[in-house]
């Protein structure tokens, strides 16, 4: 499977990649986007099976990326990894069709719990 | 009057503990040991601003050695491999994570800024019209680390001059 990791923080992208490996999902094809616009373009062009996205990013926020993908008929599995977590954000994410919402800081156990059903 | 602050020292301490558990000390061998010394020195710091239902700043400050160690832990690198950019990125992310967790505990309508990183002591920073309302101060493997919250006074909002 191809997994797109979108986060404007290089350090956080690396932590997400490492945590995916620790949780046993390192064999998948991992690609990275450094902002929301790049995430939208890559999700459209490269057709990943899963998008793991930050919320607050330059150019387009994560929720805007998700909404634009859905508006274009793209139903890729999409969820958030974010340090900002409020009930409003969670319900906005669900309303837009997000599959998961992971709050930073996260552990490999949390990744396993969320991604095992998705990635098998 | 300002909104009542709903984030106290024990909340901050819990967030900090989660950061250590997840990224800085996953093996549970080098925790942040409390010193309760709000005047302990720092050499680098990062901050995020929160505005809206509560206004103020969340500041992460540490020695340079502790920042280097944090970057090495974040990036799974050896200490000597860590670059200046790695230290900046890590400090920014630490402020972002703690700030985001603080924001989640505030009343709805708060905005979180992007982090700002300054490779100079926290004492060199000024947050006008604010007061420190809580903080976690400790030593991590013998190096000082602190996380503090600064609340803006509400009397000055909308007032320019």
Automatic annotation (TrEMBL), chain A:
Task: Tell me where in this chain the Response regulatory domain is found.
Answer: 2-119
Q: What is this protein called?
A: Response regulator
Query: Does the keyword Phosphoprotein feature in the UniProt annotation?
Result: yes
- The source's domain of life comes to Bacteria
Record keywords = Phosphoprotein
Source organism of this protein record: Actinoplanes subglobosus
Q: Which SUPFAM superfamilies match?
A: CheY-like
The cross-references to InterPro entries, in alphabetical order and at most eight, read: CheY-like_superfamily, Sig_transdc_resp-reg_receiver, ST_Response_Regulator
Which residue positions does 4-aspartylphosphate occur at?
A: 54
UniProtKB/TrEMBL annotation, chain B:
* SUPFAM superfamilies assigned to the protein according to its UniProt record, in alphabetical order: CheC-like
Q: Which Gene3D superfamilies match?
A: CheC-like
Boundaries of each Chemotaxis phosphatase CheX-like domain copy? Answer: 46-129
Residue ranges spanning the membrane: these are: none
Does this UniProt record's set of keywords contain Transcription regulation? no
Does the record carry Cytoplasm as a key word? Answer: no
Could you list this entry's UniProt keywords, alphabetically sorted.
Chemotaxis
Q: Which InterPro entries match?
A: CheC-like_sf, CheX-like, CheX-like_dom
The protein in question is named Chemotaxis protein CheX
Species whose genome carries this gene: Actinoplanes sichuanensis
